[in-house]
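Quick start: read one record
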Amino acid sequence: MGNKNKNTILNNYGQSAVEYILLLSVISVITFSVINSKKFKDFIGKDSGFFAAIRSQIEFSYRHGFAGKSENDQSDNNYSSFHETYYNYEENQSRFFSGADPYP
């Protein structure tokens, strides 16, 4: 009787291990099929629109010091005038502040 119980316990553990291995293999196959699909590569691939939009925003923010997109960039490479980071053209004033009275 004891020998029969021992075999059923070993079989249950073996079956669980096989089920986990099969489950892992099915998940791996699904993951690889999604990653290698054309739609996924178009969205997250090397020249995707998703990363192009992020790149445009980061480049503009790095250059000008405030949020925007490269498509809205009206400046040129001539830095002889005020820079947008320091001077707000719309309000005609500097973005920085100072005290109302001069420092003694």
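The chain has a mean pLDDT of 76.
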